[in-house]
Design brief:
Glucose 1-dehydrogenase; binds nicotinamide-adenine-dinucleotide; SDR_fam; KR_dom; NAD(P)-bd_dom_sf; single chain; alpha/beta; seven-stranded parallel beta sheet
C-alpha cells in the first residue's frame, strides 16, 4: 500500500493505536497530521516519524469541542493542501454498572467517543465533498455493536452508536466519492486495555484464557487494518464495521 502524496488526519495520535497508525501511514509516504488534547505526546509522535524521515505535523484539539474540530480540519487543509484520509480514533474508556454511572462520566464518555466522531465526520465530509472525495475510518469497538460486558455501559453505548453513525454516513456519502468504514478492535496492546493496576504481563495472562487467539492484538495489527481500509485495495468495502479481535466475538 502506497500513500505517497496523501494527507492523513489522525485524532488520538499521541498514543496507542493512533500513534502506531500514524507511523504506518508515514512509512508509506503519507503526510500525517496527529491531533489530540495535549501537545507533548503529539510532539513525540511527530519526532518518531521525522526520525524515520517521514512527514508529520501536530495540531492540539479536543474532539468534543465543535470549534476545535472545525479549526483542526481547516488548519490541516490550509497547511497541507488538502485532506484525503481521516482516522477518527480518539476515545476514552470508563467502567461502572449502568445503575452507578455518574452523569458527568456519562456525558464525558459520550462527548468524546460519540460527539467527537460526529463532529470530526461533519467537518471532514464537508471538505471532502467540496474536493472530490476521500476516505474516513472511525474507531468503534467490539464492546458496542458486537459484544456487551457488565460494567461498560457508557463506553458500549458510544461505540455501538459509532458503528451505526458510520453506516448511515457511509450511505449518505459514497455517491460523493467518500468511503466511510469503522474498525472494531478487541483488546489491543495499548494502555486502554490494561485494567486498573494491571501489568502488561498480567494482561497477557488474562487474555491467554479469555480469547480464542490467546493474546491481545498488536498495535501494528490494528494499524495495518486501518491502512487497508484506507487504501483503494478495499474500494468496495463501504459502511462496514470491521472486527479485529482474535475471534473473541466469532
Ligand atoms: P489510548 O488511550 O492510547 O488512545 C486514546 C487517544 O485518544 C489518546 O491519545 C487520548 O489522548 C485521545 N483523546 C482522548 N480524549 C480526547 C479528546 N477529547 N480530544 C482529542 N483526543 C482525545 O488507547 P487506544 O487503545 O490507542 O485507543 C484508540 C481508540 O481505540 C479509542 O477510540 C478506543 O476506544 C479504541 N479501542 C481500543 C481498544 C483497546 O483494546 N486498546 C479496543 C477497542 C477500541
Amino acid at each position: 500500500m502506497d500513500f505517497t502524496g496523501k494527507v492523513v488526519l489522525i485524532t488520538g495520535g499521541g498514543s496507542g493505536i493512533g500513534r502506531a497508525t500514524a507511523l504506518a501511514f508515514a512509512r508509506r509516504g503519507a503526510t500525517v497530521v496527529v491531533a489530540g488534547r495535549n501537545a507533548d505526546p503529539l510532539d513525540e509522535t511527530v519526532k518518531l516519524i521525522e526520525s524515520e524521515n517521514g512527514k508529520a505535523d501536530r495540531i492540539t484539539a479536543d474532539v468534543s469541542r465543535a470549534r476545535d474540530v472545525q479549526r483542526l480540519v481547516t488548519t490541516t487543509v490550509e497547511s497541507h493542501g488538502g485532506l484525503d484520509i481521516a482516522f477518527n480514533n480518539a476515545g476514552v474508556f470508563s467502567m461502572a454498572p449502568v445503575a452507578e454511572i455518574d452523569e458527568d462520566v456519562w456525558e464525558h464518555t459520550l462527548s468524546i467517543n460519540l460527539t467527537g466522531v460526529f463532529l470530526s465526520m461533519k467537518h471532514e465530509i464537508a471538505h471532502m465533498r467540496a474536493n472530490g472525495g476521500g476516505v474516513i475510518v472511525n474507531t468503534a469497538s467490539t464492546f458496542g455493536a458486537h459484544k456487551r460486558m457488565e460494567g461498560t455501559g457508557a463506553y458500549t453505548a458510544t461505540k455501538a452508536a459509532v458503528s451505526a453513525l458510520t453506516r448511515t454516513a457511509a450511505r449518505e456519502n459514497i455517491g460523493a466519492g467518500i468511503r466511510i468504514n469503522a474498525v472494531s478492535p478487541g483488546p489491543i496492546e495499548s494502555a486502554m486495555s490494561l485494567r486498573p493496576g494491571e501489568t502488561e504481563a498480567q494482561r497477557a495472562e488474562r487474555l491467554r484464557d479469555a480469547l480464542p487467539i490467546g493474546r491481545a492484538g498488536t498495535l501494528e495489527e490494528a494499524a495495518a487494518t486501518v491502512l487497508w481500509l484506507s487504501s483503494p485495495e478495499s474500494g468496495f468495502v463501504v459502511g462496514h464495521d470491521l472486527v479485529l479481535d482474535g475471534a473473541a466475538t466469532a
